[in-house]
Specification:
4 helices, 2 domains, Helix Hairpins, Glucose Permease (Domain IIA), 8-stranded antiparallel sheet, about 10% strand
């Protein structure tokens, strides 16, 4: 095995010196960074801008939350409306089913009364049938007796028919006896005829009574069966509609419970909306105060520009031509302290009048906002602000630079909190933001 190579002494010294140089560089950077932070913290305009931008972001978040809560409240209100509609529909169906059930109930009562009447008639008919059967049985006995008597008469008549009138006369002891025997024979013949007629009538009457009773009983039994079937059908239908009524009530109770939950959630969301609106109002008021403070500090910066008083009543020109998407004044429950002029990205922005640049850059980057701003003092008492400038095409002016009216200072961008490319343009007079429209030509 070979002897391990020793590291070169020169290389170790070089690495040691490099490490020391790196350490010194880091210390110097830290010191410079702390100075930069102190300088930034000591800049009142930067601090005011940071405070303003933080409040703007908080207002936007609060407003977005309020809109979101309101959207949720509207959704729950829609649920409440839908459940109300379903409850109304179910109530209508329930009322219809209840009406049908009530009508069936009365029909069942009528059927019960009819069945009771038919049962009474059936009982009466059965009693009548039993009476007729009893009479028929009695008449049958009478018929049997009469038939027996009639048979005896027939036998007597038959025997008498074997004796001729001459033999009857010759066998009689006297004419009186012959006359009596002849009269008796005639009487028996007449009685037999009457008896035969009575037997036929009795038979027919008995059979007719039995047939009538049987027919009536069958009719009543058929009517009773019909009414019983009808009553069963009505009871089945009523049970069905009672079930529909109960199911509708169950559905109504369920919908009412859903409505109650949705209503509570809607009230909760509306309470959150109210609370968020209150928070938004507080933040907006703080934003207004911060903007007022910023306006004051911006005016102080203009006051320290070394310029004289701004005596002009008008600015020289518009910084940008385009539609005004948001004017000066009340907006979203707060106050918009400038005007927003829409234009395509990278459109040149010009100084509205001659003046001195007092602010350029991202004064509130530490708060997560990348908005690029330029402020130009036109006098110690008047300045203009240009916001949301593009950062790829950085403003071509610097702090302390004197610019003339119409000179290009920056380009339209979308830096900071914005939904589209535009210029936020402000005019600050005597420490307060004023409507730029009064100064633009």
């Amino acid at each position: 095995m070979g002897t391990p190579r020793q590291p070169a002494r020169g290389g170790g010294v070089w690495r040691t010196r490099a490490a020391r140089a790196t350490t010194v560089a880091l210390i110097v950077c830290a010191i410079l960074g702390s100075f930069a932070q102190l300088a930034s913290a000591d800049d009142p305009i930067t601090a005011a801008l940071k405070r303003k931008e933080e409040l703007e972001r908080a207002v936007q978040i609060s407003r977005a939350n309020a809109e979101r809560y309101q959207a949720v409240a509207n959704q729950f209100q829609a649920v409440v409306n839908q459940t109300n509609a379903r409850i109304s529909d179910l109530a209508t169906k329930q009322a219809n089913a209840q009406s049908e059930a009530d009508q069936l109930f009365y029909q069942i009562q009528i059927a019960e009364e009819q069945l009771a009447l038919v049962t009474f008639q059936l009982d009466e008919t059965k009693a009548l049938t039993d009476s007729l059967k009893a009479e028929a049985a009695e008449e049958t006995k009478q018929l049997a007796a009469q038939e027996d008597l009639y048979a005896r008469h027939l036998r007597t008549t038959y025997r008498q028919a074997l004796i001729s009138p001459l033999e009857m006369l010759l066998s009689s002891s006297s004419l009186t006896e012959f006359a009596n025997r002849l009269q008796a024979m005639i009487f028996i013949n007449r009685q037999d005829v009457q008896l035969a007629n009575e037997i036929r009538t009795l038979r027919a009457d008995t059979q007719d009574k039995q047939d009538q009773a049987s027919t009536k009983e069958k009719e009543i039994l058929g009517l009773a069966d019909q009414i019983t079937t009808q009553r069963t059908q009505l009871a089945t239908a009523k049970t069905k509609y009672d079930k529909l009524v109960a199911e509708a009530q169950t559905a109504i109770d369920a919908e009412a419970a859903s409505r109650q939950v949705a209503s509570q959630q809607r009230q909760s969301a509306q309470g959150q909306v109210s609370q968020t609106n209150q928070t938004t109002a507080v933040l907006t008021r703080q934003l207004d105060e911060a903007e007022a403070q910023y306006e004051t500090l911006a005016a102080q910066a203009a006051g320290g520009s070394g310029l004289g008083v701004f005596n002009g009543s008008k600015l020289a020109m518009w910084p940008l031509r385009g539609p005004i998407t948001s004017g000066f004044g009340a907006r979203w429950g707060g106050f918009h302290n400038g005007i927003d002029i829409a234009a395509p990205k990278y459109t040149a922005i010009r100084a509205a009048s001659a003046g001195k640049v007092v602010t350029v850059g991202r004064p509130y980057l530490a708060y997560g906002d990348t908005a690029v701003v330029v402020i130009i003092a036109h006098g110690f008492n008047f300045s203009t602000l240009y916001g949301h400038l593009d950062d790829l095409h950085w403003p071509i002016v610097s702090v302390g630079q004197t610019v003339s009216a119409g000179q290009i200072i920056a380009y339209v961008g979308m830096t900071g909190f914005t939904t589209g490319p535009h210029l936020h343009f402000m005019t600050i007079a005597d420490g307060r933001a004023v409507n730029p429209m009064g100064y633009l030509p």
